[in-house]
Input
Amino acid sequence: MHSFPAKVTVTLLAVLGVSCALFAASSIGVAPTVGIKGTSPADYRFKPRVLEVGKGATVNWRWDSNAPHNVTFSKLGEHSVTKAAASFKLKFNKAGTYRYVCTVHDFSGKVVVG
Output
């Protein structure tokens, strides 16, 4: 009788577990999240800077920083609060490219809706 070595069995189970978790997360519609990274005005940035989503997707922004930030969509008239730690979410129902900015430190990002 042949059997798999213990390391192979454990590795296969780990891969299967991660695959199931990723499938479950995508099946229940976990919203993509954008963060704010950096520790000084010279390196503050949205991460990811460009996010591609489908129509009807809700995007979350979350940050906990050493300085106040915000998320501002000028053309949509939508914006978050300006705080060092906050969150903001926005649903995108129409295809297009939506640019946004932190008006405090002038760094930007965009959401591309397909």
Notes: Strands lie at 33-37, 45-47, 50-53, 57-69, 72-73, 78-79, 83-92, 96-102, 107-113. The chain is about 20% helix and 45% strand. The domain at 31-113 is CATH 2.60.40.420 (Immunoglobulin-like). The two ends are 53 Å apart (CA to CA).
